[in-house]
Amino acid sequence: xxxxxxxxxxxxxxxxxxxxxxxxxxxxxxxxxxxxxxxxxxxxxxxxxxxxxxxxxxxxxxxxxxxxxxxxxxxxxxxxxxxxxxxxxxxxxxxxxxxxxxxxxxxxxxxxxxxxxxxxxxxxxxxxxxxxxxxxxxxxxxxxxxxxxxxxxxxxxxxxxxxxxxxxxxxxxxxxxxxxxxxxxxxxxxxxxxxxxxxxxxxxxxxxxxxxxxxxxxxxxxxxxxxxxxxxxxxxxxx
Length: 239
Ligand code: ADP
Ligand code: MG
Known about the structure:
With 239 residues, this protein is α/β, with parallel strands linked by helices. It is built from 8 helices and 10 strands.
């Protein structure tokens, strides 16, 4: 079964067409990257899959559940990391993970907190107030929150945006590791270089359309280029 099925998805904001007939599928167990420049329609697409925004037309399902008609069922099996996410600044990282785990799992929350603390990798700083965290530390905490419950599908909008190289590398390692535990990952990035070694499959999105799809290797062979940034440049030149 496919984890995500998107068919002819259209999203308009007023008269502006942000997503213009996108179709793709994500197989269970994969890491799929939606990549493209700012304004391409990545966040809009991910928010629709996460049931937070209604499509104008088209069909989207997650593990067979329709994101509009069965939104409650979808929400139970996904987690979503928004592009611009904050957290309660007066809580410590630990308290935040504990709160989120309790909301999710009631009495059985301890296992999630343990995994979250370990994933966040903040050492003793997990007991500091979130208000004192750097941007990179906050992003790791939020990503740990999204992954600690081992959802069937994790939807991660720009998981490494604004990270320095060391943090970005560790976040990629975290994503790979949790994928190996069976979590299907759908992520977005405007940084075409950094997703090349992370994703099994990539959809390149530009102006609300999916203009190419394949494994990083396939895309480089098909469109020419040493890396995905060159693939994108070649693609845009050719259309
Ligand atoms: P990306 O995540 O690829 O940068 P977005 O999905 O955020 O792209 O945005 C796609 C387009 O839709 C952009 O031109 C953006 O300005 C526009 N857009 C996004 N959200 C809204 C909104 N709430 N109202 C109007 N336009 C929006
Ligand atoms: Mg975005």
